[in-house]
Amino acid sequence: MAKLSLSPKIFDVLDFGTPSAERDISRGLEKYFVESAAYQRVRSGAKTILMGNRGAGKSAIFQVLAKRERTAGSHVIELSPEDYSYELLSSTMAAEHAGAWAKTGAYAAAWKYLIYILVMKALARKGMRLTKGGGREIHNYIRDNHGARQLGPLSLLVSYLKRLEAVKIGPIEAGVRTRELDRLYKLEEIHNLLPALRKVLDDQRVVVLVDELDRGWDSSEDAKAFVSGLFQACVSINGLHRNLRVYVSLRQELYDDIPALYEDAQKHRDLLERIYWSEESLLELIAKRIRYSAHEKGFDTEALERAADHECWSAVFAAPPGMARDASFGYMVDRTLYRPRELIQFCSEALEQARGRASKLPVPYSAIERSEYGYSAERTKDIAAEYRSQYPGLLSVFEVFRNHPPTFSREELELLCLELAFGDIPTHGTGSWLPLCDPDDLIEILWRAGLLTARPTEGGRFLGSHQVQHLNLAAVQRFRVHDMFHASLGILPKDA
């Protein structure tokens, strides 16, 4: 088959999109979006809790879902990071031990109250006072209780929490306190409106999206109660009516940092959707973006549309000398944790490196090599930052591997981990967790974070946590620093 070639003019205008789905949605994300099986399950409502690492595509799914729901005539409510502030919650709410009030239950009640109010307000804005079947009741309640006072979502949530807090830890006689708490937890103020809301939802659909809960995450008591309460509220509200769906996206690290979620997850595992990518689906993602970019810039894309994904790749990126035409894809994807944002970033940086030094496609392999250090350095810092609430100072632990050979026997790695835990090798800001780690714990942390890969069988492949969900690390005898970190940490190209 003839090799696919692209016009030299495409070289100057080719664009892989932005790493941010919020910006990408206005640039055509819906057109080159990969409709994975995970997306289909979320779209159908079968899954409502979306989990994945940063950059895995959670926001992309929500952005496309929101756009398509609006196109279908649904009411869409999107809660953004500006709508919640963990620092404000921690400074506003009393500590859980003050009166021994259970915060997760309080936050769940407050979340349900907030979401129901937002849903009713969204419906009321559409002239619901003129509708039948309970619409007038809801309109009157919103007009009388939330018409003049336009509180933002966070203020509305906090106001309900403060009502609970005042009863729980205030100077109120025990019997009265119990009755008042029961009234607040059962949402008595709006409970009588739920039958009317069900009737209205027979003819109208409302979708609520809560995304980017990791923004500003501080691992505080209130932050954990905020997210675990939201989880409970989401499950409860989704049982009201098939036309009301609340979707929540959670970063994997947040889930791991909130013990209260574990029990709920066991009960509602069927609602969880974890996002995973393969080499094949990542190649499809880049190929779709290549085709779309060429088409949007006005070029004839008939050959691109007919070409296989690997041919699209080879038309844009050259292979290493003497290797298969699409070998550069393997090289680049091996330097990711299988997250779309990483591959988009690496491809974009290689393309920029080539511009000014080359005049046509494919991008020379030398441009990929030149872009690797900057990409690796940025990803190393970003990965450490993802875990800053659980493992502060993790970057200084990564630095310990600088200039080492890439592979370690178990004995060598355990010795290094012991030296780290005992402080024989100095690190910065790790005092809250590193001295408490035994070697197995630290190996698990570094494998989960992506720094290490493990070879489960002699002569087999080294596997990272992005490639396999579960691995018996205790039985692994050989480990390797992931290729993504090599350039940044000066990892020696060959074992010493």
Number of helices: 25
Largest sheet: 5 strands, parallel
Instruction: Return Rg in Å.
Output: 26 Å
End-to-end separation? 43 Å
Neighbour order of strands in the largest sheet: 2-3-4-1-5
Total domains = 3
User: What is the strand tally?
Assistant: 8
Which range best describes the helical content: under 10%, 10-25%, 25-40%, 40-55%, 55-70% or over 70%? Answer: 40-55%
Question: Strand portion, in percent?
Answer: 5-15%
Structural class given helices, strands, pairing?
alpha/beta
Shape: globular
Question: What order do the helices and strands come in, and which of them pair?
Answer:
Blueprint: H1 10-13, H2 21-24, H3 29-32, H4 37-44, E1 49-52, H5 58-71, E2 75-79, H6 86-92, H7 103-124, H8 135-146, H9 153-169, H10 174-185, H11 188-191, H12 194-201, E3 206-210, H13 221-237, E4 244-251, H14 252-256, H15 260-267, E5 272-274, H16 279-296, H17 302-306, H18 309-316, H19 327-333, H20 340-354, H21 365-386, H22 394-399, E6 407-409, H23 410-421, H24 439-449, E7 452-455, E8 478-481, H25 486-489
Parallel strand pairs: 1-4, 1-5, 2-3, 3-4
Antiparallel strand pairs: 6-8, 7-8
